[in-house]
Amino acid sequence: MSERKINIDQSQASIGVGYSEKVEAEQIGGTINNYSPEQRQTLADAAKEIQELLDQLSQTYSTKTYVEKHAVATKAMEEIKKKPNVKKKVLKALKAGGVAALMELTKNPVVNILTPMLQSLLEEGE
Description:
Shape: globular
Mean pLDDT: 75
Order of helices and strands: HHHH
Strand content: under 5%
Low-confidence stretches: 1-30
Largest sheet: none
Structural class: mainly alpha
Distance between the termini: 37 Å
């Protein structure tokens, strides 16, 4: 599988743009640039995991109403807690960049509901 990168000046962007088969720290721009390369990659990895999980759940469950989105967010939290590697990755990302940075990188309407749940996971110290 070949990888195609597009070079775009993102110095004034609020969020980076790019194309690749995988998410890389270099693709994250804007306010995320305030973090170290390791922190950016940690955020990118966790955002990718969350995005994939939400996309998968959205194929099975409707997300048209707030109640349906909340149900999907709850199911996502259950899945995150069941998978130690994903949970560890999400907690590490939250500690590295916080909820807002992770939320900025995850493009799914359910993330707005999931975010406070992730914050509570961090506050519980799990």
